[in-house]
Write a structure and sequence with these properties.
This protein is mainly α. The protein contains 6 helices and 2 strands, in the order αααααββα. The longest helix is centred in the C-terminal third of the chain and has 25 residues. The chain starts with 8 loop residues before the first helix and ends in a 6-residue tail after the last helix.
């Protein structure tokens, strides 16, 4: 597991009507290409790194790093499949959209609660 995501919620506050992809990227602290990988996996569940790399027109190492980040954020699941001729391969599936939306709501609620706490606890000493 990597460090906690670095939310970019300030970026969202600057836009009056941000697209869903931007909301995902900012709230989960992921790059736009990682959000794109998540969305492609929603359409192509069970994809391998090679298949996803072809769909995204990215190299395997970039896709592998993206998938690692998405797994750390709980947005992608990796399953190992045994091959008939021996060996194995990993397949990746995106978390369901309702689950991802719930995770977005929870992250925003936690951030909002923190901001409310900061406001409530502020005391400039003049009262």
């Amino acid at each position: 597991m990597t460090d906690a995501p670095q939310h970019r919620l300030g970026e969202l506050m600057e836009r009056s009507n941000p697209p869903f992809e931007e909301v995902m990227s900012c709230v989960f602290g992921i790059e736009d290409h990682e959000t794109r990988a998540y969305l492609v996996l929603r359409e192509q569940p069970g994809s391998t790194i090679e298949e996803l790399a072809a769909s995204l027109e990215r190299d395997r190492s970039t896709v592998n790093r993206s998938l690692s980040t998405l797994r750390d954020r709980g947005l992608v699941r990796r399953d190992r499949r045994l091959l008939d001729g021996g060996g194995d391969i990993y397949q990746y599936t995106a978390t369901s959209l309702p689950e991802a939306k719930e995770m977005l709501h929870e992250a925003l609620d936690a951030w909002t609660a923190t901001v409310h706490d900061v406001i409530d606890e502020f005391d400039d000493g003049t009262d």
